[in-house]
């Protein structure tokens, strides 16, 4: 009888120990203190903790979710430690992520998968795991008068500078000038900094370039930089002015807006006289007598219908070049040239054009995660090859088109024959 009681008692202890061990969740997501206010455009730190009864083996891989109007990236390297639970030793990896969003209210981070491996103890056999990081929600606040500021950045300070090549002054018709604007801010990534405003200037053609973004990390802190190049071509003679550019951001500590204005500049554009002989001039004068009335009539008609023609031209351009197609072309071009920075920019632009939640294929998720790892990881720099992302992206587009065509063909006829 004594032996039987001892066996029952040991069974109870083992069951209790297993139950307490079961309370240790292998994967958890930890948000910042809920009492802290987070703002639109601010870096929101998110932590994923992974626990295992043995040392980790190999790299841990995440399939990061796509969140509308947001950038969600992993930053730095994991911090590894150990902890005790009911007499058992657990090894812990803490991975940090950064969320930047242009949305306010309740923001949901969808559940996403993680793959990792660990030894049994220190040197035992390796076991692989495929777990799910649980979803989470957090509240993001919008500053007052947020709508009038468009794309919003939230930080205490942004350093902004510009250079001109050539410097403002005297130029000739047809000359170009390149303006380089550089922004940098602590606890930001380049993609989360604001683009320069679009400008339409009479007599000047404006060509915005593709921005260059970079991220410097040191001891867990990082500095994001965005560089924009804008090219101006001077088509008219005279004094032409390029308006000032103002960047505005929200200071979360002082709870007020700050701004930095790049001043307006003037260029004196000299007319370029086209050479021609006297004979050519005489012949041209005869031609002008014929074409002058026709030209005046066309100019008058164009001036009369200019508003309609402008709207019509803009609508045709938008139909031929919708934002999603433009972003698609830029993404595939960046993949072909293996330009990791431009691929990240184009990917974020393409995401912003999607009105529905994204359901990415496994191949595309892995390719995007690899893109983010190369850009934002703290390990040694390795060259990025864009072929995997391009192929996965094109396969996803083809599959979506097939599904759409199948759905359209399955619709009943509007007027079925009797």
CATH architecture of the largest domain, please? Answer: Sandwich
- Proportion of residues in β-strands: 35-45%
- According to CATH, the fold-level topology of the largest domain is Immunoglobulin-like
Order of SSEs:
HEEEEEEEEEEEEEEEEEEEEHHHHHH
Structural class: alpha+beta
Shape: elongated
Integer-rounded radius of gyration: 30 Å
Number of strands: 20
Percentage of residues in helical conformation: 25-40%
Number of helices: 7
Which blocks of ≥5 consecutive residues have pLDDT under 50? 1-21
Describe this structure in words.
The protein is of the alpha+beta class. The chain folds into three domains: 22-140, Immunoglobulin-like (Sandwich); 151-273, Immunoglobulin-like (Sandwich), CATH 2.60.40; 321-409, no CATH class. It is built from seven helices and 20 strands. It has helices spanning 2-22, 278-304, 306-320, 323-336, 340-353, 362-376, 387-409; strands at residues 27-30, 44-52, 56-62, 70-85, 88-101, 105-109, 112-119, 126-133, 136-140, 153-154, 159-165, 170-172, 176-186, 204-208, 212-218, 221-234, 238-242, 245-251, 256-262, 265-270. Strands 11, 13, 14, 15 and 16 form a five-stranded antiparallel beta sheet that branches. Strands 1-2-5-4 form a four-stranded antiparallel beta sheet. Helix 4 (323-336) packs antiparallel against helix 7. It starts with a helix and ends in a 9-residue tail after the last helix. The model is unreliable at 1-21 (pLDDT under 50).
